[in-house]
Amino acid sequence: MKSGIREIKMETEIAGIKMKNPVMTASGTFGSGMEYSDFEDLSLLGAVVTKGVASVPWSGNPSPRICETASGLLNAIGLQNPGIDVFLKRDLPFLTGKGTRIIVNVCGHTEEEYLEVVERLKDTSADLLEINISCPNVKEGGIAFGQDPGAIEKITKSVKKHASQPVIMKLSPNVTDIKESARAAEAGGADAISLINTLTGMKIDIHKRAFALANKTGGLSGPAIKPVALRMVYEAAHAVSIPVIGMGGISCADDAIEFLMAGARAVSVGTENFRNPCAASEIAGGIRDFLQENHITDVRDIIDVVK
Amino acid sequence: MKSGIREIKMETEIAGIKMKNPVMTASGTFGSGMEYSDFEDLSLLGAVVTKGVASVPWSGNPSPRICETASGLLNAIGLQNPGIDVFLKRDLPFLTGKGTRIIVNVCGHTEEEYLEVVERLKDTSADLLEINISCPNVKEGGIAFGQDPGAIEKITKSVKKHASQPVIMKLSPNVTDIKESARAAEAGGADAISLINTLTGMKIDIHKRAFALANKTGGLSGPAIKPVALRMVYEAAHAVSIPVIGMGGISCADDAIEFLMAGARAVSVGTENFRNPCAASEIAGGIRDFLQENHITDVRDIIDVVK
Amino acid sequence: MIKENAVVISQEKIASGIYSLVLGVTFAEEAVPGQFVSVYCRDASRLMPRPISLCEIFPDRGAVRLVYRVAGAGTEEFSRLHSGETAEIMGPLGNGFPIEENRDKKVLLIGGGIGIPPLLACAEKLSHPVFAVGYRSETYLLADLKKAGQVHAATEDGSYGICGNVMDVICSVPLEADVIFACGPKPMLKAVKAYAEKNAIECWISMEERMACGIGACLGCVCKTTEINSHSMVRNARVCKDGPVFKAGEVDLS
Amino acid sequence: MIKENAVVISQEKIASGIYSLVLGVTFAEEAVPGQFVSVYCRDASRLMPRPISLCEIFPDRGAVRLVYRVAGAGTEEFSRLHSGETAEIMGPLGNGFPIEENRDKKVLLIGGGIGIPPLLACAEKLSHPVFAVGYRSETYLLADLKKAGQVHAATEDGSYGICGNVMDVICSVPLEADVIFACGPKPMLKAVKAYAEKNAIECWISMEERMACGIGACLGCVCKTTEINSHSMVRNARVCKDGPVFKAGEVDLS
Ligand SMILES: Cc1cc2nc3c(=O)[nH]c(=O)nc-3n(C[C@H](O)[C@H](O)[C@H](O)COP(=O)(O)OP(=O)(O)OC[C@H]3O[C@@H](n4cnc5c(N)ncnc54)[C@H](O)[C@@H]3O)c2cc1C
Ligand SMILES: Cc1cc2nc3c(=O)[nH]c(=O)nc-3n(C[C@H](O)[C@H](O)[C@H](O)COP(=O)(O)OP(=O)(O)OC[C@H]3O[C@@H](n4cnc5c(N)ncnc54)[C@H](O)[C@@H]3O)c2cc1C
Ligand SMILES: Cc1cc2nc3c(=O)[nH]c(=O)nc-3n(C[C@H](O)[C@H](O)[C@H](O)COP(=O)(O)O)c2cc1C
Ligand SMILES: Cc1cc2nc3c(=O)[nH]c(=O)nc-3n(C[C@H](O)[C@H](O)[C@H](O)COP(=O)(O)O)c2cc1C
Ligand code: FES
Ligand code: FES
Question: Of A89, B66, B217, C217, which sits 20 to 30 A from C239 (CA to CA)?
């Protein structure tokens, strides 16, 4: 060890799966990595989280699907995806062997559809599953599925029964009490939770007198939501003992460090990929620089330090 | 009527109280109008909504109380206020006769405290009362008061029993289903509802390893929250038949028009006052210009037109 | 495809609200007419890049020209760029028009409004380009178009050329064409598509959608397709990656 | 108090990360040392104005000078302003130091770091100003201070003046004072307050808090007071309106 240059440990671990660093890409913002591999060396990332995959191809919502808001982005993609068949044939093989962990994000209209995808992912190169329970079409008693603690616990249990990989439950922020959602996932046996998904928002085109998105509402992401995301990650991390993956508006290393300090074991970079296709690896590098400047040798020493 | 120049009706009405235009100031962002009267002709505003007033002086939270986020502001003022005595002696007389409607925002730690303020406001120049049920210290069953429909209905009923002015219930956005909150206020007899109050958020100072706000969490306001606010105003306006006052991130006339088109009968300008002390009157003027350009003669003709 | 800080070589206002921006870029040699660049905003509140088509490509000078209309805050920001400053861009993006196979054919370039600029880049690579272009009132880029090919124009107020829109040009001037390249507002594209079908002319159109990633990852910019798309496995194609240029028959403009 | 677009007369980097900005303003005649201006950001993602003290006031030229440190994105944005451009500001804000009543007294001006600039404005209005200033390492504004009064300085690394902080200056140099005006970081203010109490010297300190409205309406910028404040009715005062200058005994620095 040379003076001044200490080796910095960036490794983190989620449910027994080791990652080279705590920075991953957020589902739906990075495809399956293919398009971004022109810019980004995927092996520099802790994990790639894929776009949500369903049991059959989904068309998603009509266009316009996105619009910009102040420091934010509204999207209503509607979980368009090519279905698990093509995913297993094309996308998963592409990601395999790229030197990064693979987290497959799973969506469905019904419990059966989720389970079908989870079953199909058995014995594949997927390292972890992330279950998106904020799917707009899945309802339970009037409100969406991911907004009801009972439903969260139930689906978590079912998925856990069928999954061969560890399971991350991805929580919706559109709830009164995120701690309840987190505890429900933990009670259902989740190996980890990730949050936040997007906040439901709306924009109106006053000249057209119409919603800016064909779907009326969309999910808000980007720096605008970071304060809400950080608060929820902090609350969730202090409500459960399973690992928390934090996300929501992370656009630089400082943002990521805030989430780690609030208790996240890892972080995901979403909307920022659209502004900077190398965002995730640059953020991983920036965390390392921060540790170095502050004479900290292990990234785990900044996790959960602010209480 | 000269050709091309038509008279434009800007009047709106909340619970029988006529306002010269639909633009008001949001509680806590405009003091009691005194400081802003150096910049703003108060008679150009539909109404001034005062900072929350309690039965006795409140010290609020320790500093730092505010911090900036991307297109947003986090605040944890903690409802500092000089109490109803000084309010009645100093602030209300200042506002009286200024040619604008006076809406007094009321806060309290307990139901009794709310009622005491409401009683003291009887037979004063206050035109309307706005009841802030997102007070951070008022809890009901673990979650804040304004996050529980049962509690909302109950406090609304009590306030209505004691109030001599029409009552606006101000709703918290930190809920799973804003429609339920709105319906609870309506069931309790509210004359109108206003929303949104701030979204709970957090920021961490990574160099100090501490929360940026002494209070740990704060309320997020400003353009960042506009999409969430607009969605909730739209949902609430379509869930109840009492008038809705919309706010959250309004920074220009176009923003205000979005809220009107989504169903708000009036709008409040908050955080933007800090960037532009003449924001509210400029926005009222901008709405008028929009109507003129679009050959609309009555602002009511753009309310609730997008469904 | 690269993301880079492009140096502003020049910027000029060429009509009211219309600007011409020449940028020094590293990718001029590989760029194809019909492709576009994502231009990023400096203002941190505006997250999404603005897609702007290549209006001219100068491989020798290592530069491209963008011609754009100030439509909102982002393009307004671009209009304040001065030479010597830099603009963050990504490009070249999308597929572009099929130039090679049509170089020596009779190609009719149909453009409406701010859809005209990319057709100039096309014309500069074609042997016999003929333009049919429609403006609202004030024309722009006309001298450049005339240098590149034969021009038939319309204005809605009749202040220049035929009074009407670009379809009125096509109907009133006898134009022979093997292939059509079109770019403009959706109603125009619909009319062009119908015209091409009726006259059995091969037709390529450039589509517009709001974009986030610009590289095919977010699925924000899809347009409806008549057949199942081989990438998406549904009747959807990504304008940024599978387009922006599509065979007219492939897209569902309804 | 006015909100206006001030013209940048000049901007200069005077030390690493420290800039001197001269702005043409309409309010120079009414401004008082110790007052500040709110400077607004252009970037729409930064909502709050940045409070910056008046470092010099030029009533004749209708101008004020601000000297500031680049501390984050807002001040970084200001540092890119060129002469001829405009900066949106509001001012003059706050109360200022009690100059009139102390003009001919022995006033000791104690400043630390970026708290030094407002003391220059004070000195220029006083008959016998004496400075005690502390820098980390690189000094700035020293020539101006020397022109305005007698200067005793310290640097933390000893590269100029006494090695230590401003309190070391005060303890090592025999300084007589009727009144103290102080501006700097909180630990310095605490030490100054204790020193003044011990030596029974009248002491005024300038406080810092994050601000939103800058005019006393939002209650975002309060500091703790030792007595109940007549406006707030609690032990709190608004730094922007009741301050930024307080009698040391009035504020609770704990
Ligand atoms: C492939 C493609 C090529 C284009 N080429 C040109 C060109 O050469 N010249 C030109 O003037 N314009 C072109 N446009 C349109 C141009 O992208 C928009 O005018 C521009 O994005 C508006 O940004 P703004 O911030 O000024 O407006 P705002 O309305 O404030 O933009 C808000 C958001 O909506 C998006 N948006 C707004 N209008 C459009 C639009 N028409 N198409 C796509 N996104 C939009 C913006 O990108 C931004 O994300 C092209 C669009 C596409 C999709
Ligand atoms: C009355 C007063 C007078 C001041 N005078 C000067 C001066 O003459 N020269 C100078 O260099 N600095 C001065 N400051 C400090 C200056 O306001 C901050 O350095 C500046 O706001 C930082 O903005 P930023 O965007 O660069 O930093 P960021 O850290 O990105 O700012 C983020 C937010 O925090 C606020 N903030 C950050 N630091 C401070 C601070 N120290 N005090 C108050 N708010 C802060 C900002 O205003 C902004 O809202 C003064 C502060 C006050 C309260
Ligand atoms: C265009 C887009 C598509 C998304 N698709 C998915 C998805 O398929 N599954 C999912 O769980 N989350 C999806 N998300 C949510 C993100 O993974 C992430 O939770 C959210 O955007 C907050 O992070 P950010 O602010 O960094 O973008 C999507 C977000 C965006 C912007
Ligand atoms: C500094 C500050 C203080 C506030 N104080 C109050 C208050 O006393 N009572 C209340 O009901 N709302 C209060 N609010 C909430 C606002 O009235 C408004 O609901 C919210 O800020 C959203 O609007 P905006 O984004 O336009 O600011 C406060 C907001 C801010 C920023
Ligand atoms: S913009 Fe992301 S897929 Fe086209
Ligand atoms: S900044 Fe608003 S009261 Fe001081």
Answer: A89
Q: How many residues does chain C have?
A: 254
- Cis link prior to C49 (omega < 30° from 0)? no
Ligand 4 centroid–CA B76 distance in Å is 10
For A262-271, what is each residue's pLDDT tens digit? Answer: 999 999 999 9
- Contacts with C44 from chain B: Cβ below 8 Å: 70
Instruction: Bin A93: left if φ > 0, else alpha if -120 < ψ < 50, else beta.
Output: alpha
Cα–Cα distance, D231 to D224 (Å, whole number): 13
Question: Would you say the pTM of this structure is higher than 0.80?
Answer: yes
Residue in chain A nearest B200 by alpha carbon: A228
Question: What ipTM did this prediction achieve?
Answer: 0.96
C217 Cβ below 6 A of ligand 5: yes
Cα-to-centroid distance, A221 and ligand 3 (Å): 7
Q: How far apart are CA D208 and CA D214, in angstroms?
A: 12
Whole-Å CA distances, A271 to A78, B224, C232, D233: 16, 15, 21, 46
The single residue listed with the structure tokens 């709001």 is C210
B121 within 8 A of B40, measured Cβ to Cβ: no
Percent helix, strand and coil across chain C, each to the nearest 5: 20, 35, 45
Indicate the DSSP class of residue B275: H
- Interface residues of A toward B, Cβ cutoff 8 Å, are 69-72, 74, 143, 147, 174-177, 199-204, 206, 209-211, 217-218, 220, 222-228, 230-231, 234, 249, 251, 254, 257-258, 261-262, 290, 305-306
For residue C104, which phi and psi values (nearest 5 degrees)?
-100, 10
Q: CA–CA separation, D38 vs D68, rounded Å? A: 13
Residues 6+ positions from B96 with CB-CB distance below 8 Å: B102, B125
Q: What is the CA radius of gyration of chain A?
A: 18
Task: Give the 3-state secondary structure of D164-176.
Answer: CCHHHHHHHCCCC
Structure tokens that stand for A157 in this block = 């249990």
- Please write the tens of the pLDDT for every residue from A15-46: 999 999 999 999 999 999 999 998 999 999 99
Q: Which two tokens stand for residue A79?
A: 């979980």
What is the predicted pLDDT for the residue at B6? 67
C-alpha atoms less than 13 angstroms from C-alpha of B10 in its C-beta half-sphere:
23
CB atoms within 10 A of CB B292: 14
φ/ψ of B236, rounded to 5, equals -65, -45
Phi, psi for A81 (deg, rounded to 5): -160, 155
Each residue of A69-103: pLDDT tens digit? 999 999 999 999 999 999 999 999 999 999 999 99
pLDDT along chain D (254 residues), means of 10: 96 97 97 98 97 97 98 97 96 96 95 96 95 95 95 94 92 88 96 95 97 97 96 96 97 94
| Longest Cα–Cα distance in chain C | 51
Inter-chain contact A66–C235, Cβ cutoff 8 Å?
no
A chain contacts of residue B204, beta-carbon cutoff 8 Å: 230, 258, 261-262, 306
Domains and CATH numbers, chain B: 12-62+78-199+220-302 (3.20.20.70)
The whole-angstrom distance between D160's CA and the closest CA on chain C is 39
Residue A122 tokens read as 């058995």
User: Is D44 part of the contact surface with chain C (CB cutoff 8 Å)?
Assistant: yes
Low-confidence ranges of chain B (pLDDT < 70): 1-6, 136-143
Interface of C with D in 52-111 (CB under 8 A): 73
Is ligand 3 within 6 A of the CB of residue A194? no
Torsion sign, CA atoms D220, D225, D231, D232: positive
* Atom number in ligand 3 closest to CA A272: 26
Residues 210-239 (D) with a CB less than 8 A from some CB of A: none
Beta-carbon contacts of B207 under 8 Å, excluding residues fewer than 6 positions away, are: none
